[in-house]
């Protein structure tokens, strides 16, 4: 993204606007459900534990269902999956609306309804976050991902503000009517676009295999680790402002639901400002400086809350805080999106959701516990100090632009990627060992080994369950790379997932070889000596 104008380029597409609006409604419903139910519970019962359990009921489905939902979203048509889940959401929200109309909203019923709504949102969230790239041309993908991350974080400030306003005006009935309306709007948006998802050239994985593949990709992708760790520290420290603001509004400012909605509305307005200035800020400042300033600004806002400044000052601070939160959270979200190719994008984003909601819920619990010994303002002051330390840590350990290319390679991963047709292979034969031999020039040993480390990570990300590099004792110039996959079908998937960056690594390895030599590729299937489990195709 090089200019403020390019930020909005995808919005010129009718299909992208439909996706953007639908996903924004989905994420907004997440926060309306979570914040609205907590506020409603505090009016139904004075027991603090019941109010705390609302956060658990809203977040637990993300923890339990988030990763499977990400795997499903990578395996099926995301549009059809979102439509099915949204239809179920509409039924649940309508049922909750009827229950509230009849006056049956008890604390236990509210917890059950909150968990059901949270389950639907958890099932849909990874597909909703990953779908942006399916409706824009490849050259607009970066801008589409940035707008998608803005949508997620904008809902984080709009949802609570909307919940506060609706509860103040219409109570539980208005809350669930809003959730039903959001579901209906998402269903309408799903009829206004068609998927352009890149079609895999091999059979899809099964659910368990897809889950393992997602875990393997994130584990062996260093580019994913940094934005995920940034998200955890940023969110867990910043969660204090979100969690303790209702208490501050009630105990310090004497505000009711409408006053609390006004405070959240200031956050939401700041988030809108963040969306508007994001392009210009990214154009003028380096990523490291933006992260430092936005995190330090939110730390300062949390400190102002801790000082219980006059209401006008607090509203202005929350406006700045909404802007800072939007910019910082969006940059971390985009940094992760940029590292994820299409075949694993929903699974990678499900990890983001898991970490984000765990940090938000866990952080809120920690700061809530601290209010006992040091009070609400003391807990906010401690959180401000932690946020300030996080901003300094971001300077020494900054986010980096993604190095992984999301473009599928057009050429084979390496020469000899497929065996000859001499034998008939069963797709599920395995395990399979791939062996590649290299004769390396002595002066290139160090460079070769450095590149080989990245090749090993690439192989593991794309499906290898084992990867090692060996060196021949009798012939020191000969290196042998071996990696194993569960089956021949997994090897085919491994090749299909090759990106331009993966191919470039292989080409760099080849430039280290002795003149006239080429990598020698061999494929070896496990031979079942008992003859009971697998019939070898080579026998």
UniProtKB/TrEMBL annotation:
<dbReference type="InterPro" id="IPR036259">
    <property type="entry name" value="MFS_trans_sf"/>
</dbReference>
<feature type="transmembrane region" description="Helical">
    <location>
        <begin position="348"/>
        <end position="370"/>
    </location>
</feature>
<dbReference type="Pfam" id="PF05977">
    <property type="entry name" value="MFS_3"/>
</dbReference>
<feature type="transmembrane region" description="Helical">
    <location>
        <begin position="376"/>
        <end position="399"/>
    </location>
</feature>
<keyword id="KW-0472">Membrane</keyword>
<feature type="transmembrane region" description="Helical">
    <location>
        <begin position="53"/>
        <end position="73"/>
    </location>
</feature>
<keyword id="KW-1003">Cell membrane</keyword>
<feature type="transmembrane region" description="Helical">
    <location>
        <begin position="290"/>
        <end position="309"/>
    </location>
</feature>
<feature type="transmembrane region" description="Helical">
    <location>
        <begin position="315"/>
        <end position="336"/>
    </location>
</feature>
<dbReference type="InterPro" id="IPR020846">
    <property type="entry name" value="MFS_dom"/>
</dbReference>
<feature type="transmembrane region" description="Helical">
    <location>
        <begin position="260"/>
        <end position="278"/>
    </location>
</feature>
<dbReference type="InterPro" id="IPR010290">
    <property type="entry name" value="TM_effector"/>
</dbReference>
<feature type="transmembrane region" description="Helical">
    <location>
        <begin position="228"/>
        <end position="248"/>
    </location>
</feature>
<feature type="domain" description="Major facilitator superfamily (MFS) profile">
    <location>
        <begin position="15"/>
        <end position="400"/>
    </location>
</feature>
<keyword id="KW-0813">Transport</keyword>
<feature type="transmembrane region" description="Helical">
    <location>
        <begin position="173"/>
        <end position="191"/>
    </location>
</feature>
<keyword id="KW-1133">Transmembrane helix</keyword>
<protein>
    <submittedName>
        <fullName>MFS transporter</fullName>
    </submittedName>
</protein>
<keyword id="KW-0812">Transmembrane</keyword>
């Amino acid at each position: 993204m090089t200019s403020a104008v390019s930020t909005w380029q995808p919005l010129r597409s009718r299909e992208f606007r439909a996706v953007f609006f639908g996903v924004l409604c989905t994420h907004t419903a997440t926060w309306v459900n979570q914040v609205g139910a907590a506020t409603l519970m505090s009016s139904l019962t004075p027991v603090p534990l019941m109010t705390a359990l609302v956060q658990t009921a809203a977040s637990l489905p993300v923890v339990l269902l988030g990763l499977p939902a990400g795997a499903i979203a990578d395996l099926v048509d995301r549009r059809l999956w979102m439509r099915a889940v949204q239809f179920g959401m509409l039924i649940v929200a309508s049922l909750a609306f009827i229950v509230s109309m009849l006056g049956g909203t008890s604390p236990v019923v509210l917890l059950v309804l909150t968990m059901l709504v949270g389950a639907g949102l958890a099932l849909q969230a990874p597909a909703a976050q990953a779908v942006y790239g399916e409706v824009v041309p490849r050259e607009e993908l970066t801008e589409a991902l940035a707008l998608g991350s803005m949508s997620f974080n904008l809902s984080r400030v709009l949802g609570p503000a909307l919940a506060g306003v609706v509860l103040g005006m219409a109570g539980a009935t208005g809350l669930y009517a809003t959730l039903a309306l959001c579901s209906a709007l998402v269903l309408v948006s799903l009829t206004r676009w068609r998927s352009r998802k890149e079609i895999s050239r091999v059979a899809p994985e099964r659910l368990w295999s897809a889950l393992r593949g997602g875990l393997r990709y994130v584990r062996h992708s260093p580019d994913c680790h940094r934005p995920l760790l940034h998200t955890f520290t940023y969110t867990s420290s910043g969660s204090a402002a979100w969690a303790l603001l209702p208490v501050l509004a009630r105990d310090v400012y004497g505000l009711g639901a409408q006053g609390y909605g006004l405070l959240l509305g200031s956050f939401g307005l700041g988030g809108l400002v963040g969306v508007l200035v994001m392009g210009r800020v990214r154009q003028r400042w380096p990523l490291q400086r933006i992260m430092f300033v936005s995190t330090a600004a939110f730390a300062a806002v949390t400190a102002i809350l801790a000082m219980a400044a006059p209401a006008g000052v607090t509203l202005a601070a929350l406006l700045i805080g909404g802007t800072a939160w939007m910019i910082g959270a969006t940059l971390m979200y985009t940094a992760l999106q940029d590292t994820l190719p299409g075949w694993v994008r929903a699974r990678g984003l499900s990890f983001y959701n898991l970490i984000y909601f765990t940090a938000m819920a866990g952080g809120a619990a920690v700061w809530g516990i601290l209010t006992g010994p040091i009070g609400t303002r003391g807990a906010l002051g401690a959180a401000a100090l932690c946020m300030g330390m996080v901003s300094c840590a971001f300077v020494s350990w900054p986010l980096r632009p993604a190095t992984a290319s999301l473009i599928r390679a057009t050429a084979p991963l390496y020469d000899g990627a497929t065996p000859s047709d001499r034998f008939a292979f069963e797709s599920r034969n395995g395990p399979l060992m791939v062996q590649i031999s290299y004769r390396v020039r002595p002066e290139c040993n160090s460079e070769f080994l450095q590149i080989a480390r990245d090749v090993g990570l690439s192989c593991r990300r794309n499906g290898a369950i084992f990867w090692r590099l060996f060196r021949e004792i009798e012939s020191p110039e000969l290196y042998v790379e071996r990696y194993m996959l569960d089956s021949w079908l997994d090897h085919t998937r491994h090749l299909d997932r090759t990106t331009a960056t993966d191919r470039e690594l292989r080409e760099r390895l080849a430039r280290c070889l002795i003149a006239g030599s080429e990598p020698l590729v061999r494929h070896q299937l496990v031979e079942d000596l008992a003859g009971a489990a697998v019939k070898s195709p080579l026998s």
